[in-house]
Amino acid sequence: MKYYLIVGEASGDLHASHLMTALKAIDPQAEFRFYGGDMMQAVGGTLVCHYHHLAYMGFLPVLMHARTILKGMADCKRDILEWQPDAVILVDYPGFNLQIASYVKRHTNIPVFYYISPKIWAWKEHRIRDIRRNVDQLYSILPFEVDFFEKKHHYPIHYVGNPTVDEVYAYKQNHQPDFDAFCADNNLDHRPVIALLAGSRKQEIKANLRLMAEIAGTWNNDYQMVVAAAPGIDDEFYRECLGDNPATLLRGQTYRILQHSLAALVTSGTATLETALFRVPQIVCYNMKAGRLANLGKKLLLKVPYISLVNLIASREVVPELVAADMNPTNLQGYMISILPGGSARQRQLRDYEEVAQKLGEPGAPAKTARLMTEYLRNRQQH
Fold first, then answer.
1. DSSP assignment of 90-120
2. What is the pTM for the complete model shown?
3. Cβ-based neighbours of 300, under 8 Å, separated by 6 or more
4. Which residues contact 21 (CB under 8 A, 6 or more apart)?
């Protein structure tokens, strides 16, 4: 069968690549065409557009690049019509993907699958109307979404488990920790590591990395700072953001960094969950311009009490969240003291991670999703 996939960022590229691998295991004749990234391309198929060309977030960046985004959307619609896939698989990225879903439903009979459902429980809840109208099957990776979609909105979904569990589990199975080798391979000394994960988009990195490095650098005599570089963001940009703050930039080694870190500063997103699954105490950092105004906007717009996946899954504060005006040197330094060895919050956070892992369930999300998708398509062909 022919599958057309659309992702909009690095985590989507990672999750989609594993879904593609799972689909190929069930459907050896599978053909892929996609708006995606390097990991999807490594699985095979045709990369139509790299997500870097369309990965903008926030009102102003989207407005400034509206022409590029609209052209990308128009090209995508035309490409789907010309290729006529057996299914369109959307991965998160709702601003773009819900527009594609609407177009596909209006102009074709191609079924639309949504893998990693839009986070409408956080904001823009009205999008449930678009999902109900335009999405044939929705595959959730967060356990609390079942109640939101099925009980609150009476829209049936599939909870398939969380692919990050699979990815971390697979890494741990194949890579035993070896701190000496990690240091030797990357020109590091043997001080313990504090990981800095500042997001996958330039706006996030620019807003967060300097302050993260500045505060973490307070412990530079005892710890070394290691930055996990995002795909497609060049070293020079990271150096500009870091300024004079000492830190080692490593590329393509996020899991290896986390495996050897004692603490982490993490910008909200999938990385917060990855950090928890590696059992690394963390602080969630999300700096913004006009911090006080952003804090007010958060209270007015967000429908949930937390921004990190770890806290949302636990339904309580497991990791501290420093958002907008709260992301300041005083708060950051205080929380850093609490999560480093000997700190007051470190052991509690590690215990709470076990509860989060239990709620997520066992590995197997890509395989389960692939099985459900292919069963749906085969049943559809028979009828």
1. EES-HHHHHHHHHHHHHH----EEEES---T
2. 0.84
3. none
4. 43, 366
On whether the CB atoms of residues 153 and 351 are closer than 8 A, the answer is no
Are the C-beta atoms of 291 and 325 separated by less than 8 Å? yes
**What is 177-360's CATH topology?**
Rossmann fold (3.40.50)
d(CA 132, CA 127): 9
Helices (H) and strands (E) in the chain, counts: 18, 13
List of residues 6+ apart from 228 with CB closer than 8 A: 195, 196, 197, 250, 253, 254, 257, 258, 271
pLDDT tens digits, one per residue of 211-240: 999 999 999 999 999 999 998 899 999 999
Identical fold for domains 2-161+364-382 and 177-360, yes or no, is yes
What tokens does 86 get? 């057996």
* 168, amino acid identity: V
Counting every residue, how long is the chain? 383
Domain boundaries, the chain: 2-161+364-382, 177-360
Residues in Cβ contact with 347 at an 8 Å cutoff, skipping those fewer than 6 apart: none
Residue that has been written with the tokens 């060895």 in this structure: 341
Q: What is the CATH number of domain 2-161+364-382?
A: 3.40.50.2000
Q: How far is CA 351 from the centre of its chain?
A: 23
For 60-115, how does the pLDDT look when each residue is reduced to its tens digit (9 = 90+)?
455 555 666 778 789 999 999 999 999 999 999 998 999 999 999 999 999 999 99
